[in-house]
Amino acid sequence: MNVKIFEKAEQLNQYAATFITQQIKIKPNLKMGMATGRTPIGLYEELVRQHIAGALSFSQVSMYNLDEYIGLPRQHDQSFYSFMKRHLINHIDVKRHNLHIPNGSVANMNEEADRYDKLLLQAEQLDLQILGIGTNGHIGFNEPDQKLIGGTHVVELTNETKWANSKDFEKAEDVPSYAITMGLRDIMRSKKILFIALGKEKAEIIQEAFEGNISTWCPGSLLQLHPDIMVLLDKEAASLLTYNKSPC
Ligand code: PGA
């Protein structure tokens, strides 16, 4: 596991964006797994900057999002579909037919999970999964539980996740209770994982995920088993690590 610690989030975002740019240069039709949430916003801004500067084209790249709330229309401000449009898609040259985001507003969510799973199977293997972590250890919306599900599935969000995400909604009770998420199998099958965490509220879970026991009660701890993961942390998120400490 390659852990890099940065003084500031801006340095981390530049490093991550440069890494992604290199991957797209090596393989212009890179298949990327995409994350949403507050963590990747700065990275996406950096990718947009590099695209506008002419250093980066997404014209052959395909993107597969990790998850989506259930019950929000796609046009809702807080849907992950709107998030992707706002922070990335509207500003780059990715082709619409290469964008894949689970749809959380269809009548039959189990059918939608099957459809998304088939899509991921057709893609065979993502090349690069961008990934964050929740304060409760979830990755995607795979919440801590006695067992974890391999494929795309519907999940009931924990109170901790709903509370954490309520900052993005007008009222806490507006946060959807259910979501659809890629499962652990597809996350772990990605050739490379680019993992990012920022801020002191992530320090405890980072220590638990990367230095604690591997447990389904901390889904992020399964990442210890991935053969090619790069972990990028700012110094607050890394502050409780005891042995994985190699500042950039
Ligand atoms: P955040 O969410 O980036 O908003 O902290 C991370 C996650 O829930 O995976």
Please provide a written account of the structure.
The chain has about 250 residues and is an alpha/beta fold. The chain has a single domain (about 1-235), classed as Rossmann fold. Helices cover about 30% and strands about 15% of the residues. It contains seven helices and ten strands. It has helices at about 10-25, 40-50, 80-85, 110-125, 160-165, 185-190, 205-210, and strands at about 1-5, 30-35, 60-65, 65-70, 100, 130, 155, 180, 190-195, 230-235. Strands 1-10-9-6-2-3-5 form a seven-stranded parallel sheet, sandwiched between helices. A three-stranded antiparallel sheet has the order 4-8-7, with helices on one face. Strand 2, helix 2 and strand 3 (about 60-65) form a beta-alpha-beta unit. Helix 1 (about 10-25) packs across helix 2. It starts with a strand and ends in a 14-residue tail after the last strand. The mean pLDDT is about 95. The structure holds 2-phosphoglycolic acid. The site of 2-phosphoglycolic acid (PGA) has 6 residues, from loops.
What order do the helices and strands come in, and which of them pair?
Elements: E1 2-6, H1 9-26, E2 31-34, H2 41-52, E3 62-65, E4 67-69, H3 80-87, E5 99-100, H4 109-123, E6 128-131, E7 153-156, H5 159-165, E8 178-181, H6 184-189, E9 192-197, H7 203-211, E10 229-234
Parallel strand pairs: 1-10, 2-3, 2-6, 3-5, 6-9, 9-10
Antiparallel strand pairs: 4-8, 7-8
Helix pairs in contact: 1-2
2-phosphoglycolic acid (PGA) binds at residues 37-39, 132-134.
